Amino acid sequence: MLFPLYWMVNVSLQSGGGAVATPWFPAAPSLDGYVRAFNDQGHNLVTSLVVSLGSVVLSLVIAAPAAYALAQFRIRWATWVLFGVLITQMIPGIVVANALYSAFSDLGLLNSIPGLILADSTAGVPFAIIVMRAFMGSIPPSIVEAARVDGAGQLRAFVSVVLPMSRNALITAGLFTFLFAWGDFLFALTLTTTEDVRPVTLGLYQYIGTYVSDWSPIMATAVLSSLPAIVLLLVAQRYVAAGVTGGAVK
Amino acid sequence: MSTRADAGTLASASGAAARQSRDGGATPPSRDGRSGRSSARTKARIAELAFLVPALVYLVLFFGYPVVKNVLMGFQEYTTKTFFTGEAPFVGLDNYSAVLSSSLFDKALLNTVLFTAGSILGQFVLGLAIAVFFRRSFPLNNVLRALLLLPWLVPLIASAAVWRWILDTDYGALNRFLGALPFVDGNPAWLTSTSLALIAVIGVNIWLGIPFNATILYGGLQEIPEELYEAGALDGATGWRAFRHITWPLLRPVVTVVLVLGVVYTLKVLDIILGLTNGGPANSTQTIATYSYFTSFKEFDFGQGAALGNVLVLLSLLFAVIYLRLNRKAVDE
C-alpha cells in the first residue's frame, strides 16, 4: 500500500538521474530535484496555498451559519435543504466546470484567484455543512437560550457561543475543505489557461505531459504537493477527535 | 472529486437523518401585545433565515445553475463561436444524436462500466479484508491504520504521477520487479498498450480507493457488539460462518452507503485517467467523464460536452435509485 509513497520520496531524492532505472534506495540523496521543483513550481505552490486558504474561509463563512440553522432552528423544509446538499455530491465536477466556464468567461473570472476559490469551494461547502450540522445538533439549545436571555441577539449568540463551542467541527471542516481545494485538478484544468494563475496540481500535470527525461523534480513536486495535507492532518488530529460539549454543560 | 469527501459526509449523514431540527428556542419571549408578538416573531424568523441565505445562494449558483445550464446547453449549438457572437442556437436533439452515434461513445460507455465495476469490486473486497484484519488488536494497530490513510491525503494527480513512473515500461519499478522474477518474460507496456492500459488504470484506482473503503467499513465493524460474536461462538459460528451470519448482515447498511458513494464518485473520476494515460492509447481508457472533458475543453463543443455530462448525471442517478430500491426491499424483508 505504501510503496508508491516511498517511491515518490525515493525518486525525489535521486540526483539528476535521467530516464534510467532509479536505484531502490536514495543511497546518495540529493536535493537537486527540490531545487528545480521550487524554481519551476514555487509560484504555483503559492497560488495553491492562497486558493486553498481562500476556499477554507469562504466555505466556513457560508457553511457554519447554515449548519447551525439546519441543526437548531425549527425550519420545516430543513430536511429538503439537507437532501439537496447530499444530492450535490452526485453532480460530476465536469458538469459544473462546463457551465462555469462560460459564466466565468462572461464575468472575467477565468484565470483568477477568486474564480478558483469560488469553484473549488463546491467540494467544501456541502461537506462543511454536513459535518458541522451533525456537530451543532449536539449543542444543547439551553446554552444558546441562556445567551439569548442575557440579551444577545441571534447573531451575537452564534458568534460568541456557538462558534467557540464548535471549534473542533470548524477545524475538521476547514481541514477537509483545504484538502479538497489543494488537491483540486478539474477546476484548475478547465478554468485556468495562463501561467499567472496555476495551482500546483496543474503544474504537475503539465510536468508529466511533456516528455519526461528526469523524474526527480516531478517527484519532488509531488512530495511538496502532498506535504501540506499530511502536516495539517498531524497537527489537527487532536482537535478532530476531541469532544467539545462535555465541558460546556455542567 | 475523489472519494475523500465521503468519509465525513457519510459518517454524519447517518446521524443527520436521525436528528431533526429541534425547537431551539429561537423566538425570544416578547413583552409586547399580540401584534407586537407576531411582528417580533416575523423578525426573528427573518433573522433565522438570514443564516441559511448565503449557503442557499451558493448552492443555487454553483450546483443549481450548472445543472440547469447543462440541460440547456445539451440542446444548443454551443461552440467557440458562441463566445464571440453570444449566439447559441437551439438544435433539438442534435447533440445527443451526434454523441450517442459516435463510435467513441460505445467504447467510453463500456470503459466507464468496466472502470467503475472493476474499481468498486477491488476497492471493496480489499478494503473489507483490511478492515476485518484491523479488527483484532495487535501491536502498532493504530499506527498502521493511520499510515494506511496516507495515500488518501496525497493529491490525486500526484499519485497519478508516481504511478506513471512506477508503471513505466522500460524503467518502471513494477517491470523491474517483474523482470527479476524467473517466470516472467517480456516487459508489459502497462500504460501504453491498448489491452493493458484500462487494467492498469483500474488497478491504480483500486489502490486509491482502499483507504476510504477500509476506513468506513472499519468504523462499521466497530459498531457490531462483541457479545454477538461470543454468543455466535457458543452456537458454533466462528471464522467464515461468523462473518456470514453476524458481520455481513449487520454491516449491510454501511456497505450500502460505501457502494453507492463509491459508484457515484468513480463514475466521475477524471484526475487519475488524465494523469495516467490521458484517455489513451487509442481511447482505450476513455470514459464518459473524460470524453465529456475532451469534447468541451479540447474540441470546444460545449453543447456536446454538456450532453455527455448529462448522460453521466443520469447514469449516477439511475444507479443510486436502483441500488437504494433493491436494498430497501432486502432490508424490509
Automatic annotation (TrEMBL), chain A:
GO terms for cellular component: plasma membrane. It comes from the Bacteria. Residues 45-236 form the ABC transmembrane type-1 domain. GO terms for biological process: transmembrane transport. Keywords: Cell membrane, Membrane, Transmembrane, Transmembrane helix, Transport. The chain crosses the membrane at residues 45-70, 77-101, 113-136, 157-182, 215-236. The keyword Transport applies. It is found in: Cell membrane. It is a multi-pass membrane protein. Pfam families: BPD_transp_1. Belongs to the binding-protein-dependent transport system permease family. PANTHER family: INNER MEMBRANE ABC TRANSPORTER PERMEASE PROTEIN YCJP, MALTOSE TRANSPORT SYSTEM PERMEASE-RELATED. This is Carbohydrate ABC transporter permease. It comes from Quadrisphaera setariae.
TrEMBL record, chain B:
It is found in: Cell membrane. InterPro entries: MetI-like, MetI-like_sf. Residues 1-26 have a biased composition (Low complexity). One of its GO terms (biological process) is transmembrane transport. PROSITE patterns: ABC_TM1. Keywords: Cell membrane, Membrane, Transmembrane, Transmembrane helix, Transport. The chain crosses the membrane at residues 46-68, 108-134, 146-167, 187-208, 250-267, 302-324. GO terms for cellular component: plasma membrane. Residues 109-323 form the ABC transmembrane type-1 domain. The keyword Transport applies. Its main location: membrane. The keyword Lipid biosynthesis does not apply. Residues 1-38 are annotated as: Disordered. It is a multi-pass membrane protein. Belongs to the binding-protein-dependent transport system permease family. This is Sugar ABC transporter permease.
